[in-house]
Amino acid sequence: MAGHHRPVMLAEVVESLAPRPAGLYLDGTLGAGGHAAEVLAASAPDGRLLGLDRDPRALELAGRRLKNFSGRIKLVQATFDNLERELTALGAGLADGVLLDLGLSSMQLDEEGRGFSFRRDEPLDMRMGAHGPGAAELVASSSEEELASLFKRLGEEPLARRVARAIVRERAKEPIATTGRLAEVVEGAMPMAERRKRRLHPATQVFQALRLAVNDELGMLERFLEQAPRLLRPGGRLAVLSYHSLEDRRVKKAIAAWANPCTCPPDLPVCACGRLPLFKPLGKLGRPGEAEVALNPRARSARLRAAVRTEAAA
Ligand SMILES: C[S@@+](CC[C@H](N)C(=O)[O-])C[C@H]1O[C@@H](n2cnc3c(N)ncnc32)[C@H](O)[C@@H]1O
């Protein structure tokens, strides 16, 4: 899919970042470099971009796609919770725009052997980068309670307990080492009526939960949001594309807290806490249009939130 990757909500992302010549842009989730290429084109002739991805294969791909901009880019293999460190290391001051396009790229989803999809039988890995334990280890080493809580919290799976029990029972006979075997065990744990009722494959939510846990995706996002006010200069713009409510809720809450930081009791006539807004939310760029979803089903669940950095000190 590498050559066919369509950047999600491209026009809306570029509009929200408003790239300009000489600007400095950070892309924390470079992927195939689709959004980055457009930001670089829109900030010609001298806008620069620092691009991060935790997946070395994504960096290779993006490097090839962005080769025409080679004097204006720096690509680093790192997780985006290190953006502040990487920006400081660059020594070029604060950024004019920061973009996150969360989750998996189509390349990762389609690439064989990475264990993200239950539609093929392959090793149960699910790591976006090359570090840390994969999903098979998590499934093998977590207790029934831990698995149930994981499936509930990160997969919002209503039958979490039942599924966890089935996994613990089956792994005692033989380790659950492949995506196909896990999907089979999850499906087998659900009553037929429940399986029929579901619009998506019965293993969808369990796979989502494991992927989020293996890659610490929500932890990464929270650590990023904590540093975001320190990445941007006044007037700089933040844009985050998320694909499920667990992520979007965190982004929405962070933007609301930055926009209304005052902690004074509502009956106080004037603010005494002195906390000033760090960001101003940017209008309703919201969701992809029908035409985009028809062309690119992956865009269906996308939600774009954007905000402009104020003058207030972080
Ligand atoms: C949806 S894709 C980005 C696609 C990109 N915007 C484009 O237009 O080609 C998400 C990318 O973010 C990377 N990624 C996910 N979480 C990350 C993290 N915490 N730190 C760095 N990269 C991450 C993934 O490896 C993947 O390549």
TrEMBL record:
<feature type="binding site">
    <location>
        <position position="101"/>
    </location>
    <ligand>
        <name>S-adenosyl-L-methionine</name>
    </ligand>
</feature>
<keyword id="KW-0963">Cytoplasm</keyword>
<keyword id="KW-0489">Methyltransferase</keyword>
<comment type="similarity">
    <text>Belongs to the methyltransferase superfamily. RsmH family.</text>
</comment>
<dbReference type="InterPro" id="IPR023397">
    <property type="entry name" value="SAM-dep_MeTrfase_MraW_recog"/>
</dbReference>
<keyword id="KW-0949">S-adenosyl-L-methionine</keyword>
<dbReference type="Pfam" id="PF01795">
    <property type="entry name" value="Methyltransf_5"/>
</dbReference>
<dbReference type="InterPro" id="IPR002903">
    <property type="entry name" value="RsmH"/>
</dbReference>
<keyword id="KW-0698">rRNA processing</keyword>
<dbReference type="GO" id="GO:0005737">
    <property type="term" value="C:cytoplasm"/>
</dbReference>
<comment type="function">
    <text>Specifically methylates the N4 position of cytidine in position 1402 (C1402) of 16S rRNA.</text>
</comment>
<dbReference type="GO" id="GO:0071424">
    <property type="term" value="F:rRNA (cytosine-N4-)-methyltransferase activity"/>
</dbReference>
<dbReference type="GO" id="GO:0070475">
    <property type="term" value="P:rRNA base methylation"/>
</dbReference>
<feature type="binding site">
    <location>
        <position position="108"/>
    </location>
    <ligand>
        <name>S-adenosyl-L-methionine</name>
    </ligand>
</feature>
<feature type="binding site">
    <location>
        <position position="80"/>
    </location>
    <ligand>
        <name>S-adenosyl-L-methionine</name>
    </ligand>
</feature>
<feature type="binding site">
    <location>
        <begin position="33"/>
        <end position="35"/>
    </location>
    <ligand>
        <name>S-adenosyl-L-methionine</name>
    </ligand>
</feature>
<protein>
    <recommendedName>
        <fullName>Ribosomal RNA small subunit methyltransferase H</fullName>
        <ecNumber>2.1.1.199</ecNumber>
    </recommendedName>
</protein>
<dbReference type="InterPro" id="IPR029063">
    <property type="entry name" value="SAM-dependent_MTases_sf"/>
</dbReference>
<keyword id="KW-0808">Transferase</keyword>
<feature type="binding site">
    <location>
        <position position="53"/>
    </location>
    <ligand>
        <name>S-adenosyl-L-methionine</name>
    </ligand>
</feature>
